[in-house]
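Continuing the batch. This is chain 6 of the set; chains 1 through 5 are on the previous pages. Same settings as before, nothing changed between runs. Recording input and output for traceability.
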Amino acid sequence: HAMGTLIEGPSDKVFEVIKKCHDNMASKCQRVVTNVKIDDRRGAEGSIKRKVEAVRSKL
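Output for chain 6:
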């Protein structure tokens, strides 16, 4: 995603990171908008790493 941040991992850890990021920005800004899109695909661990490796192999 060109204008966003991708996070991959167990949902409890992912939500913890999202909350920390949001809280950090909220402590510095008067308004923070955090949009979250969830693609929950069982058994697809490490897909971000595989995608990066696929692109690098073509460069």
